[in-house]
Amino acid sequence: MPVHEVLTATSESRLFEVTAAPYVVLDTDMFIRGVNAAYLRATERSRDELIGAFMFDAFPDDPGDATATGVRDLSASLERVLSRGASDDMGIQPYSIPASRVSGAFRRKVWSPVNSPLIDAEGRVVGALHHVEDVTAVHEALREARNGAAVTGSWQPPGLVRRAMLAVTRYERAARAVVAGQATPGGPARDGAGPASLARRDALWHAVVHAARQAPSGGCAAAVCGAAVTALPGTDAAVITLHGGGRMPEHLAVSSAWARRVEEVQYVTGDGPSLAAFDTGERVLVADLDRSGTVWPLFTEAALGLGVGAAFAYPLRTATATLGTLTLYRRRRGARGQGPPAQAETLAQIITSVLLADMDSEIIEQVRATADQDDLHVAAGIVAATLGIGTGEALQWLRVRAQAQRVSVVDLARSLIAHPPPDPGSPL
Length: 428
Prior knowledge:
This protein is α+β, with helices and mostly antiparallel strands. About 50% of the residues lie in helices and about 15% in strands. The protein is built from 16 helices and 13 strands. The strands form three sheets. Strands 1, 2, 3, 4, 7 and 8 form a six-stranded antiparallel sheet that branches. A five-stranded antiparallel sheet has the order 10-9-13-12-11, with helices on both faces. A two-stranded antiparallel ribbon has the order 5-6. Helix 8 (about 160-180) packs antiparallel against helix 14.
């Protein structure tokens, strides 16, 4: 049977192939008509294995797992998409996949799948787009945090926790892309190639990672700033700014008080190299600040007054977003107009990778904390309904009971969720 032109156009589009998110194109009979490189990496399969295969022949349930529901749940979701012509978000779905190197073996995986209809010019549903994110690592971290007591393989986290799980997954994927040199569109960094360049990059990597590992808790970015000044000759100060949704930075790490004053001028005047690099996603290299007055007049006047001679700003980019900037400052002295420090752009990529790894840990902790709060509120609701009291009193009751039993209040909450009283009014 010929493949519909909509399915062909989707699977052959440039965006489909280069996106870092895993996608599969399916026809109405659930045969695989297209897979992108990200999906092949996620499932450890080859294109030849999958194209033309029936989805559930390629990815059957693990015959050794009597509780497996992957085939049933995914096929039901796809049927809804094909019959209704609307997207279907499956939440969190355990679905083990065949191991690539061991015949008959399966690898435990947990996914966040979303299925969407593919529609032709006449409005007919001609296939489905299957998008998954591998959230196995974060799901397992949450299982450990919850002691595994009240969590089954099909546990569905609340919406906020699930969004955080997806954030961790995307950060991890972006960090891997940076390490692989994919953060700069079009190829590796512009600092050169060959054995000598690789040796310098390796030395920079070790310098930054060593600084990050030696940093006290919460001080990773500040330690990396110091390493940038040490590793890049001709650099007097370094600033790492991580941006949120507004103009003010969420986090600012500096190598010196002087650098902090210079960087803060940009957020007072509303312009400058760091803001320009973040807004455009491109490096901003100002070798002689005296000559940039027409570009950022307010910032330039204030920065020259602080003794700044040059500024070089680099976006901290992942494969999918710009997180912030690395800005290097040079004082006004000696010969002017010298270019940026060698290897500065490579250093920006390495810093992005290191900071992403640090942020992943923080996000996982936030996910765990959110899961704790969610369980406490659920347990408080059970107690309130059972004892006929308010939720505030129920939370206090949980704290007192936990102290008496010498367990954490979160563990007590999870025990109640796992074994709630059969009826309201039953003794706890």
